[in-house]
Amino acid sequence: MTSQEIRQKFLDYFKSKDHLIVPSAPIVLKDDPTLMFSNSGMTQFKDFFLGYKTPTAPRIADTQKCLRVSGKHNDLDDVGRDTYHHTMFEMLGNWSFGDYFKKDAIAFAWELLTEVYGIPKENLYVTIFEGDASENLERDQDAYDYWKSHISEDRIINGNKKDNFWEMGESGPCGPCSEIHVDLRTPEEKAKVSGLELVNNDHPQVVEVWNLVFMEFNRKADRTLEKLPAQHVDTGMGFERLCMALQGKSSNYDTDVFTPLIAKVEELSGKKYTGILEDEKDIAIRVVVDHIRAVSFAIADGQLPSNGGAGYVIRRILRRGISYSYRFLGMKEPFLYKLVAVLQEQMGTFFPELEKQGKLVSEVIKSEEESFLRTIENGLIRVEKLIQQTIGNNQKVLPTEEVFELYDTYGFPDDLTRIIAEEKGLTIDEKGFEQALNEQKQRSKADSAQKVYDWITLEEKPENFVGYDKFESETYITRYRKVENKDGEFYQVVLSESPFYPEGGGQVGDKGILENAVESFEILETKKENGLIISLINGLPKDAGAVFYAKVNVAERRNSQANHSVTHLLHEALREVLGTHVEQKGSFVGPDYLRFDFSHFNKMTEEELTLVEDKVNAKIKESIALQEFRNIPIKEAMDRGAMALFGEKYGDSVRMIQFGTSMELCGGTHVKNTSEIGHFKIISESSAAAGIRRIEAISGDKAEEYFKNLEKQVAELSQLLKSKDVLRSVEKLIEENAALKSEVDALKKEKAKGEIGNWKGAYEQKGDKLLLVKRTSLDAGSVKDIVFQLKKEIPTSITVILSDSDGKPVITVGVSDDLAGIYQAGALIKDLAKEIQGGGGGNPGFATAGGKNLDGLENAYQKALIL
Fold first, then answer.
1. Greatest CA separation for the chain
2. Annotated binding residues for Zn(2+), as ranges?
3. Which residues contact 75 (CB under 8 A, 6 or more apart)?
4. Which residues share a beta bridge with 776?
5. What is the DSSP string of 23-55?
6. What are the start and end residues of each CATH 3.10.310.40 domain in the chain?
7. Contact indicator for 212, 150 with CB cutoff of 8 Å
8. Order of all β-strands in the sheet with 692-699
9. Dihedral pair phi/psi, residue 176, rounded to 5°
10. Where are the annotated coiled coils located (predicted)?
11. Could you tell me if residue 116 is left (phi over 0), alpha (psi between -120 and 50 degrees) or otherwise beta?
12. Contact 509, 527 (CB under 8 A)
């Protein structure tokens, strides 16, 4: 049975049991402050469990893309070193929202596994929750009784809270669970040791394949449990492990989920995969084929690699794959991007985003590979210098500070530094490195640390967002909670009627005022969490239940919504000018400017930018009225031609924004007429990533300010140049400056020639070398020319020139070629540069360093005299 057939049989089975089959949610979460990625199948249904939203159907089934690389659920370090851990994996799941519960969930699971898939019953074991006295949780007797009708009692195992009480995170929906384990060992192995002894003991052939979670509780911030409004079923079956069981393999990597990718790696690398767990080459291949799946799906869902947040996690996964392939597969050129086509062929039918975004995914991965391989090559040079310096100092341990700097600042893998050092008979200070790493993590945690208390509910009432129609409204607080962070103590409030737009869709959240006759509070930010619009205020009202007036900062909102509306016009104009391959890949919409990322593989020309700008401004001048469809079926919106963005999760009903021929699904706030935008001006166009261009632009008040500032600058220039023809005056100045520069350069060369003659006879014999140490006010370019000339003409020499040109300290060191094996210019200058509070580098024969402390040149001069 192929993996495609296994996946389809699961969906078909639950469809026959009256489950609605829904597509996977994006792997990257954009509007959930508690999670970066979907780390389980239930993530997209969290609001249903908490009662914030009404389920689209009482029974649902799907296959969900999941990623576990951060936080409590983190499998990254295990990937490649065993047969079954993965970063990205599929979770097959069936769900009941207040419909069936334990009895039917258990019956469905047993029937599917034993009758549809045909797994021998004697190979299965189940676990149930044994209870936990510390939380007054009783043994799950119901689950035990239901399982007795399907499996012998000696195969039902009590499980502790760690294994059999499922929790999504530190807080949120949770409940007892019942795991199904499969024993894939040979008959001979089973005869020696019973599978009962191996369940939940990390045996690679006795593995959990399905977890049935009976969602009954909500874990609060204070760690107490409260009953959910209804009982739900949340199941998750590991697709890769299921394929291993049904295809008779002993490793997930031996199934056809991974073998096509492994075959491609073998072809590209020339290395043969043997499946040996301890073999570094095989570990590298497993890492590569696992990580390419995670990165490809994340990029296809709209998350580009970056230096922060979810983008940093994706970059880290990709770089881990590149590092392993570089070290153990000998791959010194980009090649991971070539695996994307194989992944498309395997999974494109079930996950169409891979088909549609394949070219972009490949280009982004290739660009990241090229960049990180350059980092590795540059790092190798730095490591070699560090090794030479360590050996020169008669040390055996590389300095911790420099090793950590290589890792933290330059992104060079610490294990690669370790390997290279060991080859030279050196080591790194493992404890010191770990301490530096932990200190960095603690600093990062301290910066982002936030304590969130439980909600205090004043009234169980659904909130009402009125911000599309009003800038202010009468309201009261329905719930609040305290928040503590490094900036102090604040409160998050939910309002009965809120005009404040919550951050989302690229648009910043509203700020404003919450006030009544007695007191007033500043709204610092507005966000959305679990379907609730939450505003942050700088204090708690004396009477939290009193009536207030919520007032949006109108000036900022008007500018933000003008920028948001213009992104829609910009999107349409880009597609008209560049082609329909253009798709939005990210945006930021604030009151001061907008940023728009889009798929396109070439830098835009000035002509294209002008044409786009003109098209947008033409739409603004047309005074096109907003057509808003707040609750339109998604199919109808798509049939009308609305643009939907990859990586966004849409419901059955959507909001569509239309300005003439521009139609997009969007939840943001917008102008009522394009004339309100005023004017649109592109400030810059640049590369955001491979295949992604970025436009930054302004509109409205900021565009008006921009042109007023330009007029002012032109007027000031005209006055300064004493000419109304500013352009001609500047051209004349440039011509005069070029002529003067030529004269200055000629004079510098003459002066440098004179210095060479003077300095040639100034070398002194110092041990095994001739040494020249000189101070000068010559510029850096002239000094460089002189040093290269001297080290060529004066054998067995070291030349040190200390310059104070333009009031800036610069040190230059030259080592003649016949001394290069004994002295290193880079090592010498590193020590001298400390005196001027600077740094620099170069090669063994030539190095320069600039600094901040001009007075330190004298100390550097004295130190150089004793080289």
1. 102
2. 564, 568, 666, 670
3. 68, 69, 85, 86, 87
4. 803
5. PPPPSB-SS-TT-SB--STTGGGHHHHHTSS--
6. 756-865
7. no
8. 584-589, 594-599, 692-699, 680-689
9. -65, 150
10. 700-750
11. alpha
12. yes
Q: Which fold has domain 756-865?
A: Diaminopimelate Epimerase; Chain A, domain 1 (3.10.310)
Q: Are 669 and 557 in contact (CB under 8 A)?
A: yes
DSSP 603: P
Contact 512, 551 (CB under 8 A): yes
Residues of the chain with CATH 3.30.930.10: 3-256
Under 8 Å between Cβ of 180 and 203: no
Q: d(Cα 359, Cα 363) in Å, to the nearest integer?
A: 6
Q: Which residues contact 716 (CB under 8 A, 6 or more apart)?
A: none
- pLDDT means per 10 residues, the chain with 867 residues, are 96 97 86 72 79 86 86 65 87 94 97 96 96 93 96 94 85 90 93 92 90 92 86 94 94 95 96 92 95 94 85 89 91 95 93 90 92 86 85 86 85 81 86 86 70 87 90 95 89 96 93 95 92 91 92 96 97 96 92 94 94 97 96 92 79 91 95 96 91 94 92 87 85 87 76 77 89 90 89 92 92 91 87 87 89 91 89
**Which pLDDT does position 92 carry in this prediction?**
96
Residue 646: its pLDDT value, please?
65
The DSSP code for 643 is: B
Dist. CA 512–CA 496, nearest whole Å: 16
Alpha helices by DSSP H, listed for 330-413, are 340-347, 352-356, 358-392, 400-408
Tokens 């007032």, residue located: 551
DSSP string, 764-812: EEETTEEEEEEEE---HHHHHHHHHHHHHHSSSEEEEEEE-GGG--EEE
Give me the architecture of the 451-552 domain, per CATH: Beta Barrel (2.40)
Residue 212 β-bridge partners:
178, 235
Measured CA to CA, the distance from residue 88 to residue 290 in angstroms comes to 7
Our CA angle for 319, 320, 323, nearest 5°, is 80
Q: Where are the alpha helices (DSSP H) in 393-469?
A: 400-408, 414-423, 430-448
Show binding-site residues: 564, 568, 666, 670
Q: What is the pTM of this model?
A: 0.74
Question: Going by DSSP bridges, is the β-strand pair 73-74/69-70 parallel, antiparallel, or unpaired?
Answer: antiparallel
List, as own/partner pairs, every contact residues 534-538 make where C-beta atoms lie below 8 angstroms and the sequence separation is at least 24, other chains included: 534/492, 534/493, 534/494, 534/502, 535/492, 535/493, 535/494, 535/495, 535/498, 535/500, 536/483, 536/490, 536/491, 536/492, 537/490, 537/491, 537/492, 537/493, 538/490
> What per-residue confidence (pLDDT) applies to 322?
92
Dist CA 13 CA 23 (whole Å): 16
- Top CATH class of 3-256 equals alpha beta
Contact between residue 321 and residue 292 where contact means Cβ atoms under 8 Å apart = yes
CA separation for the pair 521, 508 (Å, rounded): 20
Q: Which of 203, 218, 124 is nearest to 167 (CA)?
A: 218
- The segment(s) of the chain belonging to CATH 3.30.980.10 are 557-707
Q: Which residues pair with 766 in a beta bridge?
A: 769
**What count of Cα atoms within 13 Å lies in the side-chain half-sphere of residue 522?**
3
**What is the pLDDT at residue 74?**
53
Do 73 and 285 touch, CB atoms closer than 8 A?
Answer: no
- 516 class by beta-carbon count within 10 Å (0-12 exposed, 13-18 middle, 19+ buried): middle
CB 61 within 8 A of CB 10: yes
**Under CATH, what is the fold of the domain 557-707?**
Threonyl-tRNA Synthetase; Chain A, domain 2 (3.30.980)
Q: What is the pLDDT of residue 156?
A: 96
Ranges of CATH 2.40.30.130 domains, the chain: 451-552
